[in-house]
Amino acid sequence: MTETPTPTTFTPHVGTAFRISFPDGSLELTLEDVEPHGIREPRPGVPGLRTEPFSLVFLGPLRPVLPQRIWELAHPVLGTQEVFLVPLGPKEGRMRYEAVFN
């Protein structure tokens, strides 16, 4: 992904799979939700401040639980991007993860 992502970058892909690859296999996470955090006014002197902060919520298998860290997520349309994922805990038999774009 070459552009700065916004909520509208991901919204059409809710329900689709993102893949994390490991040396011995891979894990699939499904994008469950895009949660906008509201619009923020640009601030002079703070270059690169995101004006549309948002979160992505993913669902994956209960095991293995991915530790909190930067992971490389691959998507067939959006390409590959490094994101910081945080496990939120289980929901309806699946593990939830969040990536915050602030």
Structure, explained:
With 102 residues, this protein is mainly beta. It has one domain (15-39, 50-101). The protein contains one helix and six strands, in the order αββββββ. The protein has a six-stranded antiparallel sheet with strand order 1-2-3-6-5-4, with no helix packed on it. The mean pLDDT is 90.
Helices and strands in order, then pairings?
Elements: H1 7-10, E1 17-22, E2 25-36, E3 54-60, E4 69-75, E5 79-91, E6 94-101
Index terms:
6-stranded antiparallel β-sheet; 102 residues; 6 strands; mainly beta; single chain
Give the overall form. Answer: globular
Task: Tell me, rounded to a whole number, the average pLDDT.
Answer: 90
Order of helices and strands: HEEEEEE
Give the strand tally.
6
Poorly predicted runs? none
How much helix is in the residues? under 10%
DSSP strand (E) fraction?
A: over 45%
> What is the total domain count?
1
Please state the CA-atom Rg, rounded to the nearest Å: 14 Å
Enumerate how many helices there are, as a single number: 1
Label the structural class.
Answer: mainly beta
Strand order of the largest sheet: 1-2-3-6-5-4
- What gap, in angstroms, lies between the N and C termini? 17 Å
Largest sheet: 6 strands, antiparallel
